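[Archive record]
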Amino acid sequence: MAKFQPGQSGNPAGRPRGVGTIGKLRSAIEKDAPGIIARLVEAALAGDTQAAGILLSRVIPPMKATEPPIPGLAIPSLDAAPEAVLSALARGVLGTDQVIAVSQLVSALARAKETAELENRITALEERYAEQP
């Protein structure tokens, strides 16, 4: 079976764009869209917060929550991480959402460390057995 070239459709005779349900709906309101937008703008300017929300949600992307660095959180080692995280929660340094996020990061770091240690042990074993006749 031949591979398709980049940019070449795997089914050039397939369903054309715009014939599905969404395409039909877009075609149906296409001529009225400028008027609808104008009415939304008028309503928003008149104080309609729902209209303003609709307009703004389409123009301005939603803000993502950002968290400042966590002062007072010291994790000296992976072994000490659970106790340090729980202590920070108890002291009010971390909120529960932050505890979950930090715990997930510590868990991912622990898995990466375990994987690296296993790779090193396997390499050492392979080298030792390769030396034996």
